[in-house]
Amino acid sequence: MKSPRTRPHSRPKRAAAVLVAAAALVVMSGCAPAGSDDQVTLNFFQFKPEAVGNFTAIIEDFEAENPGIRVIQNSVPDPDTAIRTLLVKDKVPDVLTLNVNGNYGELARACIFADLSGDPVAETVNPAVQDIVQSLGTCSADGADEVNALPFASNASGILYNPDIFAANGVEVPTTWDELIAAADTFQANGISPFYCTLKDSWTASPAFVNLGGTLMPDGFFDTLREESTGGTATVSFAEDFAAAADKEVTLFDYCQDNFASRDYNAGNKAFADGESAMYLQGSYAIPAIRANNPDAAIGSFPYPVTDDADARVVVSGVDVGIMVGRNTPHATEAQKFVDYLMSPGVVAAYSEAQSTFSPLLDAAPNNDPALAGLEPYFSAGKIIGFIDHQIPAAVPLVNLLQTLVITGDTETFLADLDSEWDKVAARTTTQRQGK
Predict the structure, then answer these.
(1) May I ask which residue range the UniProt record assigns to the signal sequence (predicted)?
(2) What pTM does this model have?
(3) Which of 8-22, 136-150, 245-259 has the lowest mean pLDDT?
(4) I want to staple 30 with a disulfide (CB 3.0 to 4.6 A). Which of 37, 63, 208, 304 is the partner?
(5) Intra-chain end-to-end CA distance of the chain, in Å
(6) Mean pLDDT within 426-436
(7) Helix axes 243-253, 411-434, angle to 10 degrees
């Protein structure tokens, strides 16, 4: 190891082939035929600029099958801000896609979205994936948890690796923590950067932490922490329950290239595409960007071997794209028809192939992308857990704390600060509730 730093159905196939740049903030798809007074127009809020082309093709096919419905795709550069602005103006779109994260959970709990539990397509979703959605928050307007989003595409956070570099150095894919560290030592001894790290973008310290912490934390940690934050007791804490995860985070980042603090995510994608490191601490979501730099990049993947029990490995997965319907849309029937089309197996599969994602549908055929081969079996078997950072309020500056942690190596301060920031947010939330 390096010496420590100064801790300084046919149509859906077509959708996969059409890829165009997001050149405008508002993209209009489909043309209304003359005299179509009975045509319904759906406002479709779509948050991924890199997927505008995919959804344009999907919309064209949908409109061809449903000439009475026109869909206008709206794609904006800052979707989190845009959606909140629309909500303030009481202009909830008819159909939406959002990343299913903590921000989504807040909106779901506020009962912004319709209940989709009665839609037959909800029964086609892998329960393990839907559980991740439900865990982030739901509307309970009638005393029962609703289904406010259906997962359209899932990602997986593992370790990406270069199979050619592994083979040239006689290194096998690690299945335990000790094997991972031994592999890193081998690469380092051979003059190869074990990991390419990009701490100029603070969030890039998070993928490793969510894998380490998600595997090592006690069952029900966040539920207990939230309950105790309002009750004055403290049987769990980050200091007590995340110390091992923080130590292992620091260990991994001790194997980064020397200039890791000045490199950003875009630089990391290019560097890994060019074979500048054996491994990359990013998930499936990085694969399209890596291939954009080098279509022939050698990419493999494997789950984080967090412990020395190979059977304990799981894959951290998030719903990269969830589909919602505005709760008070005047076009509920048409919106539901569009959602059902989006959730059809052919459309989901075509999008998964194009964007290197995992299908969230039951009995879906595995994504055959070789870069996903090391993660796919865990996803298909339901050996997945959600992103723990989605459980942490946005007001807690987790990524900034992680950035400082991996630069300084000061785990005690990191854990103490994380507990302190959590407590501050919990105290404000409790005060707000009492004031209502």
Answers:
(1) 1-34
(2) 0.80
(3) 8-22
(4) 63
(5) 55
(6) 57
(7) 130
CB of 53 within 8 A of CB of 387?
A: no
User: What's the rounded Cα separation, in Å, for the pair 363 and 359?
Assistant: 9
Q: What percent of the chain has pLDDT over 90?
A: 73
* In-domain check, residue 173: yes
Query: Does an H or E element contain 341, and which?
Result: helix 332-342
Beta-bridge mates of residue 326: 113
**What does the radius of gyration of the chain's CA atoms come to, in whole angstroms?**
22
The alpha carbon torsion through 259, 261, 264, 268 (nearest 10 deg) reads: 50
pLDDT of residue 286: 94
Which residue, 154, 145, 143, 139, is CA-closest to 101? 154
Q: Does residue 97 lie in a domain region?
A: yes
Which H or E element spans position 350?
helix 345-355
At residue 88, the pLDDT reads 79
For 31, counting Cβ atoms within 10 Å of its Cβ (0-12 exposed, 13-18 middle, 19+ buried), the class is exposed
Is the domain of 190 the same as that of 285?
A: yes
Q: CA 427: distance to chain centroid? A: 28
Reported for 181-190, long-range contacts at CB under 8 A and 24+ positions apart, including other chains, are 181/1, 181/251, 183/278, 184/1, 184/252, 184/255, 184/279, 185/1, 187/278, 188/1, 188/2, 188/255
Angstrom CA distances, 359 to 4, 157, 194, 306, stand at 41, 15, 31, 25
Instruction: Determine contact, residues 92/123, Cβ cutoff 8 Å.
Output: no
Residues 6+ apart with CB under 8 A from 90: none
Q: Examine the domain organization and report whether 364 and 417 are in the same domain.
A: no
* Containing structural domain, residue 42: 11-156+318-379
Element (H or E) spanning 268, and its range?
Answer: helix 265-273
Mean pLDDT calculated for residue range 102-112: 91
Do 146 and 197 sit in the same domain of this protein? no
Residue 435 DSSP one-character state = T
Count of CB atoms situated within 10 Å of the CB of 199:
22
Q: Give a yes or no: residue 4 inside a domain.
A: no
Domain tally, the chain: 2
Q: What is the pLDDT of residues 17-76, one digit of tens each?
A: 333 333 333 333 333 344 456 899 999 999 998 899 999 999 999 999 999 999 999 988
